[in-house]
From TrEMBL:
Hydrolase listed as a keyword: no
Listed name of the protein: Alkanal monooxygenase alpha chain
Keywords: Monooxygenase, Oxidoreductase
Enzyme Commission number: 1.14.14.3
Length: 340
């Protein structure tokens, strides 16, 4: 385990029990948590994207703001739903955010998860082409994004432009060199992990996965990582790919921790359908005193296989408490698992 970051879904609700009452709270507290995490020595600040929900939805203004307030920490998404994206506009936004951050953007994308509304991407102006389904459309958008991020010109310039053009075909600007090599795919199945490797993307594997063998979650996820790395080598890509896994890890070091998460000590994997044709296995929450967490996580085969672990944080408990959770993991748990 080489890197540890956090993954924030950015939930907000006007409930009096929430520290995050509005969209403004969710955005501003996300920036504050990223700054705090960098000060604590964490390696990454990642954010989930969900449309039509009281959660974070438009990542690039947030990522740019965090990039301007921090100097070291990786910033990224986990993940952007490509069914909703105009890949050229996305390339411009991503390029700008990456340049503002000094090349620290790690952009996680995917086909997306079950939605708040029926076929929400249609409201954004997208629909599958003839013979496609929504997954095909997401991958088509992804192919265009990956091509555009290479930075090669493809658009015919106007012979009478408003401003002088550089010679040759034009590309979306600003272009950020190196961003193409920092694209990750959120894969639910072994097959999509293999596809991501063939495309030269890194792998994000979350706290749920398609149940393909009935084995424990961490075993299936470790096998998915092996499939991905084998496919990367077979494709002949240079260098080593990166792999992240997400985990809910709650060290119990205070009475408040115990009140919030003591009941999760008996957590276990769960199996169920998240879509009609997709049976999934959901990973357990790790909640215990630090010594017990080190022992439990040492047996997690996917954590051992990955190079990055993203901590899913309970963001509605506020910045101070989530900074405490991150600090507890970094100080009391991670060193026992070989971090730093």
């Amino acid at each position: 385990m080489k890197k540890i970051g956090f993954l924030n879904f950015g939930h907000w609700t006007d409930s009096p029990h929430s520290q995050v009452r509005s969209g403004a709270d969710a955005l501003l507290q996300s920036i504050d948590l990223a700054v705090a995490a960098e000060e604590l020595g964490a390696d990454g600040a990642y954010f989930r994207v969900h449309h039509f929900a009281r959660q974070l939805a438009s990542p690039f203004p947030l990522l740019a703001a965090i990039g301007a307030r921090t100097s070291r920490i990786e910033i990224g998404t986990g993940v952007i739903d490509m069914r909703y994206e105009n890949p050229l506009y996305m390339a411009e936004d991503a390029g700008a955010a990456d340049l503002i951050s000094g090349g620290r953007l790690q952009l996680g994308i995917s086909r997306g998860s079950p939605e708040q509304v029926i076929d929400g991407w249609r409201y954004f102006g997208y629909q599958p082409a003839e013979g496609e389904d929504q997954a095909d459309m997401a991958r088509r958008h992804t192919d265009v994004l990956l091509e555009v991020l290479k930075g090669e010109g493809f658009a015919e310039p106007n012979p009478r432009p408003m401003f002088p053009n550089p010679p040759g075909l034009l590309r979306p600007e600003p272009h950020s060199p190196g961003l193409r090599d920092r694209i990750w795919w959120g894969a639910a199945s072994d097959a999509t992990a293999r596809w991501a490797a063939e495309k030269g993307m890194h792998l994000m594997s979350s706290t749920l996965k398609a149940d393909e063998t009935g084995e424990p979650f961490h075993v299936q996820q470790r096998k998915q990582i092996e499939v991905f790395r084998d496919a990367w080598r077979e494709a002949g890509h240079p260098g080593e790919p990166r792999v992240s896994v997400s985990r809910s890890i709650m060290p119990i070091t205070t009475d408040l921790d115990r009140a919030y998460f003591g009941h999760e000590r008996r957590s276990s994997d769960q199996f169920g359908n998240i879509e009609p044709q997709l049976r999934a296995v959901f990973g357990r929450t790790y909640a215990a005193e630090p010594d017990a967490l080190v022992a439990e996580l040492a047996t997690d085969e996917a954590v051992a296989a990955a190079d990055t672990v993203l901590l899913t944080v309970p963001n509605q408990l506020g910045v101070d408490y989530n900074a405490h959770v991150v600090e507890s993991v970094l100080t009391d748990v991670a060193p026992g698992l070989g971090w730093r």
